[in-house]
Specification:
This protein is α/β, with parallel strands linked by helices. Among the domains are: 140 residues, 3-Layer(bba) Sandwich (FAD/NAD(P)-binding domain); 149 residues, 3-Layer(bba) Sandwich (FAD/NAD(P)-binding domain). It is built from twelve helices and 25 strands. The strands form eight sheets. The protein has a six-stranded mixed β-sheet with strand order 5-2-1-9-21-20, with helices on one face. The chain is globular, with a radius of gyration of 24 Å. The two termini are 44 Å apart. The C terminus is likely disordered.
């Protein structure tokens, strides 16, 4: 049943929750429609998440991959941007409730709030192994990575120095592969001439993956090429490896019946995601069905069951109406879903209907390092330099603003020539300073001092 009114005196009000790829592209698609659009996000900017790992590894600065939402939508006179957070909805009254102002009425609601880190019931690991979803996450990762080299330069104990120069990335998906490759390039190329008492090329970078190969959704040949490229960079790839504990700058992992522990001061999480809290809100208030990760199972038009005026798009949506599995949580899918829902709503307002959503998958890509990438396209698969060029141009193309495209292109060209990383600033995103040992205080034993030291905290 169509719950969106087709005739009314005031403009229909479309509320979009989330300014990521799905929400932003939906808002942009309403530019010439006879509707009022309100885009709500708790951040004032759109973040190009596919390049967030380059902020975490010192290649780019946050502003290079972020665009203020008001700037992007400044010429959309029918669109208002609100810096706020949706805390609840009433689907019967068609209201959304905000944290910082009165509720809003809507004629159609588009929810695009994405996903967050998933530690599979071990949320206590989050402090020691931060994930990568926000700018703050990236800055904290960058701080930990480069602070590890700085601390190793001051450390005389060989075992402690080895732990400082050991980097563990948990999860062999695209994010984990990209992080591991970038850290290897930092150690073997970018900073190898910058220190005097340590040899950064002796750093150990380990990539853990629970499945039998990295990049499990990719063709087996692409996974093999990616692993070979990582190993050439100096990454130790450990497949069929399950992490059982993370604590006190160490990782305990199991391979078959064998359990081992390795000391590492820098542990990064890239192993899984879970839906944002809006999935549960939709389940509680509108009876939406959720999958095991908390994502909303949507209808063929991206609406939820029993409420054709509520749509879920992007990473929060589980769309299983095309192929044998749900659509992947990648930026191009979210963009097309946003554009589709905007078109569908506009057509409904005119009394028309459109076909169910269908995504044309052009393939998948992942970068491993300089001149190293894989690109699995519909018509062919590539690896090495050609795949790296395809990956670079695709990401430049999808950046939102022209100045971002230009800055990133120039920065990449300069880094390619110099092998440098110009955004290696260590910023204090938390109050923690990386300590080899807590400082001794007069009148206190070393044990008492140790107990008083705060554990690492990610923002």
């Amino acid at each position: 049943m169509n719950n969106i009114p087709t005739k009314q005196t005031s403009l229909p009000h479309i509320v979009i929750v989330g300014g990521g790829f799905g929400g932003l592209y939906a808002a942009k698609s309403f530019k010439d429609a006879s509707v009022k659009v309100t885009l709500i996000d708790k951040r004032n900017f759109h973040l190009f998440q596919p390049l967030l790992y380059q902020v975490a590894t010192g290649t780019l600065s946050p502003a290079d991959i972020a665009s203020p939402l008001r700037v992007v939508l400044s010429k959309h006179k029918n669109t208002q941007v609100l810096l706020d957070k949706v805390v609840d909805i009433d689907p019967e009254a068609k209201k959304v409730f905000l944290e910082g102002r009165d509720e809003l009425n809507y004629d159609a609601l588009i929810v695009a709030t994405g996903v967050s880190h998933h530690y599979f019931g071990n949320d206590q690991w989050q402090d020691d192994a931060p994930g990568l979803k926000t700018v703050e996450d990236a800055l904290e990762m960058r701080r930990r990575i480069f602070m590890a080299f700085e601390a190793a330069e001051k450390e005389n104990d060989p075992e402690k120095r080895k732990a400082l120069l050991t980097f563990v990335v948990v999860g062999g998906g695209p994010t984990g592969v990209e992080l591991a490759g970038a850290i290897a390039e930092i150690a073997h190329q970018s900073v190898k001439n910058d220190f005097r008492d340590i040899d950064t090329t002796q750093a150990q970078i380990l990539l853990f993956e629970g499945m039998d190969r990295i990049l499990p959704p990719y063709p087996e040949e692409s996974s093999t090429n990616a692993q070979q490229a990582l190993e050439q960079l100096g990454v130790d790839v450990l497949t069929k490896t399950l992490v059982t504990n993370i604590a006190d700058n160490s990782v305990t992992f199991r391979q078959g019946n064998t359990t081992n522990t390795i000391n590492a001061h820098t542990i990064l999480w890239a192993a899984g995601v879970k839906a944002s809290f809006m999935g549960k809100v939709l389940a509680d208030r509108a009876g939406a069905e959720l999958d095991r990760a908390g994502r909303v199972i949507v209808e063929s038009d991206l609406s939820i069951k029993n409420y054709s005026d509520i749509f879920v798009i992007g990473d929060l949506a589980n769309y299983t109406h095309q192929g044998d599995s749900s659509l992947p949580g990648v930026a191009p899918v979210a963009m097309k879903e946003g554009e589709y829902v905007a078109t569908l709503i506009a057509k409904r307002l005119e009394g028309e209907t459109i076909k169910p959503f269908e995504y044309d998958d052009f393939g998948s890509m992942a970068v491993i390092g300089r001149n190293k990438a894989i690109a699995d396209l519909n018509f062919a698969s590539f690896s090495g330099f050609i795949a790296w060029i395809i990956w670079a141009f695709a990401h430049i193309y999808y950046l939102i603003e022209f100045d971002n495209k230009l800055v990133v292109m120039i920065q990449w060209a300069w880094n390619y020539i110099t092998l440098g990383r110009g955004a290696r600033l260590i910023t204090e995103t938390s109050t923690l300073q990386l300590e080899i040992e807590p400082p001794q205080q007069p009148g206190k034993s070393s044990q008492n001092t140790k107990d008083s030291v705060q554990k690492p905290v990610s923002v």
